[in-house]
Design a protein that fits this description.
242 residues; alpha/beta; 2 domains
Length: 242
């Protein structure tokens, strides 16, 4: 039986790769890669010889087109490793259509998921906010109206089910998102702003939405670096004290 390995990759620190992940990447003959350049750099850093491996592009905009080709490879008995550029595949990254197709078509393929690095879980654990129930919403919508709808939906949902929320945001839209959060959720909403997780310049800041708005308004937009993970809770029995 062929195996599809879901292999998490480091989100910033190469040492966060697991021993098991290294062995699988060494032994499989086919790797599905979100960006082959990033994957080859990772393999080189791990001292894995990839010249005899097939490293195939498999990213958001082609994964459905490549689905049949990957299923043929698996049907041929070849083990395949699926990796993203950073973190756990499928979690806001490619892979879901493939896993669903294998399940729904009842393919004779064993899906093996490895534990590993995840920006979502790192940010949640570092946030100081309740971790017993959390909701990951992916990237904040680009369009202001969609962003507003999402935050209003969060506010309504939080009235009945208490949860800590986690979102990704880019440096370019961080300020507009924080201002929208202040407008919809209130400036006193507990918030943790995480950036460069596991990297040399990792920084996790604690406080409220208002604190974050005040801080970012004093920073030149060009000085913002990297991508951000925002962790917040609208209603919580554990008040956040900066």
């Amino acid at each position: 039986m062929a195996k599809l390995f879901i292999v998490p990759t480091p989100i910033g620190n190469l040492q966060d790769i697991t021993l098991r992940a290294v062995e699988i990447l060494k032994n499989v003959s086919v790797i599905l890669s979100e960006d082959t350049r990033v994957t080859k750099k990772l393999l080189s850093g791990l001292k894995i010889d990839y010249k005899d491996k097939k490293i195939l592009n498999y990213f958001e905009h082609n994964e459905r087109d490549k689905l049949k080709d990957v299923l043929v490879i698996l049907d041929g008995g070849y083990d395949v490793a699926l990796v993203s550029d950073a973190g756990m595949p499928l979690i806001n990254d490619p892979g879901f259509p493939l896993v669903r197709a294998i399940r729904e078509l009842k393919k004779n393929v064993d899906i093996v998921v490895l534990p590993g690095a995840s920006a979502v879980l790192c940010a949640l654990a570092a946030s100081g906010l309740p971790t017993d129930r959390f909701t990951f919403l992916g990237y904040v919508p680009r369009k202001p109206n969609d962003k507003k709808k999402m935050l209003k939906a969060v506010k309504r949902a939080s009235e009945n089910i208490k949860s800590t929320y986690i979102v990704f945001e880019t440096k370019h839209r961080l300020e507009s998102t924080l201002l929208m959060m202040k407008l919809i959720l209130g400036g006193s909403t507990p918030l943790s702003v995480c950036k460069e997780l596991t990297k040399v310049h990792e920084k996790v800041e604690y406080g409220t939405v208002q604190d974050a708005v005040d801080k970012i308004s004093a920073i030149n937009a060009g000085d913002l670096k990297g991508e951000y993970v925002l962790v917040f809770a609208v209603h919580t029995d554990s008040p956040f004290t900066p």
